[in-house]
Amino acid sequence: MSSPARMDFEKTARCLAELGSPLRLRIFGLLVRAGHDGLTVGELRQMLGVPASTLAFHLRGMVEAGLVRQERQGREVRNRADFDQLNSTLDYFRDECCKGVELPARRKRG
């Protein structure tokens, strides 16, 4: 049986791997910007100009990793970024993977 810390490490690695594709990162960025309303598969296809099968493949991986939640609404499937999972992933990466390292302060864009 894996320890909870090990499972967090594996979950974090899975989430980061899912976001490691340029297309998946674009999809996720659109969902984050859409906020809690999310976007339908049709809206995503229109915005990205990708085939349905390609979009379904990439969404499936993000759903399995817990980064995206899907909800059927009639004939459409609405996709939403899971902000709790995103924050958990980033927190774990920062707190555990960078432990003992002094990270530089973020620069403000201006």
SSE arrangement:
Elements (H helix, E strand, L loop, with lengths): L3 H15 L3 H13 L4 E2 H8 L3 H14 L2 E6 L2 E6 L1 H15 L13
Antiparallel strand pairs: 1-3, 2-3
Keyphrases for this structure?
globular; 59% helix; Arc Repressor Mutant, subunit A; single chain; 110 residues; 5 helices
| Oligomeric state of this protein | single chain
Helix content: 55-70%
Main β-sheet, spatial strand arrangement: 1-3-2
Please report which band the strand proportion falls in: under 5%, 5-15%, 15-25%, 25-35%, 35-45% or over 45%.
Answer: 5-15%
**Whole-number count of domains:** 1
Structure description:
- The longest helix is centred in the first third of the chain and has 15 residues, at 4-18.
- A three-stranded antiparallel beta sheet has the order 1-3-2.
- The chain has a single domain (4-94), classed as Winged helix-like DNA-binding domain superfamily/Winged helix DNA-binding domain (Arc Repressor Mutant, subunit A), CATH 1.10.10.10.
- Helix 1 packs antiparallel against helix 4 (52-65) and helix 1 packs across helix 5.
- It has 110 residues and is an alpha+beta fold.
- It is globular and about 50 Å long.
- It has helices spanning 4-18, 22-34, 41-48, 52-65, 83-97; strands at residues 39-40, 68-73, 76-81.
